[in-house]
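Bench log, entry 3. Co-assembly request; chain sequences pasted below exactly as received.
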Amino acid sequence: MAERAPHIEVAGFVFRVAGLAAPGRSWVEGRYGPFLSRRAPSFGVHVRASERYRPGRTPRPSATWNGGRFALASHPSRAEGDLARRRVAFRAGPGPALNPDLFRLLCSFLLMQEGGVFLHASAVVDRGRAWVFSGPSGSGKTTIAGLAGARAVLNDETIALRSGRRGWEACATPFYGSGGPAMARVNDRAPLRGLCFLRKADRFAHRRLSPSEAVARAFPEVMLPKRHARVTERLLATLAALAAAVPVWELTFAPDPALWTYLDGLD
Amino acid sequence: MDWTDAFPVRKSVPWRALDTEALVVDVKGGLLYPLNSVGARIWDLCDGARSVDEIVGLLAAEFEAPEPTIRADAIEFIERLADAKLVSIERRRTGESR
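Structure output for the full assembly:
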């Protein structure tokens, strides 16, 4: 009898997650519920709970790849994969059956291979097009998601950006921030209207960023470890392409629903 | 420091030109250096084939500023790149091959 293995779809990748015991599978189906998919998988993830707890200092997340093979780590889990065979072995260790930090790292790494990025950002769809709001913690990503009203929130913490047939698109992800699971209820995508780097204030103001400024502001917000030269080179190329195609602003904003009217005036 | 026989050489680090500007990444230090148009031009010229004197001469032809100002600024910038281990300084006489 074939193993029942959930399929999770994130930013166009469909992962078949195998190797889970019933409690782990139940946890995965609950945690990633809106992102469960019936589409054919494009990547196989085999989870093994074989990573043991190691006391001591928590190592930093890492991402390296050589040829078609790659290795990712986000304590206490790690993953090793093969791009050509489209398979990854996920060593879960103590904690969640499919560690969201490592799963996010895997999604981010795979998207980088296809010329996209996972950005530390929130995104709101307004009249069919996505505004993406990025910045470090505390800059206002979740605050803006909370101002969305009836508009769809793609996420308040992690947004996938990728170039498709309709140009650059913002894709929802299941990796939410302080807004909690309510910020990742819909697996949707929308063409990118603009990218804003946030600054909280008591008024509205904006400044269009040059491509160089845009890449410099986006680079630290990409959700990948950047201590591997090949990863860094790939990210620079992707962000340069994004900055050339999409308007990027620095946005000073007040937590006021008038934000959406203000954004209409950006050019 | 005597700069007459100094040939700055870019280290093999990720970098990218964007319009007239550039971004250079120090992977080990986890730092990103945004360079303005003058900095980007100096970075581009730090190819090991040109001495500091030659770099200053090219900058003086391309940018409107007194040559002594350009020289002082260029040397200070190259020193900062060297301190950040983004360029190395080779010593040899002009015309001498690497």
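The longest strand of chain B covers residues 21-26. Chain B has one domain: 6-87.
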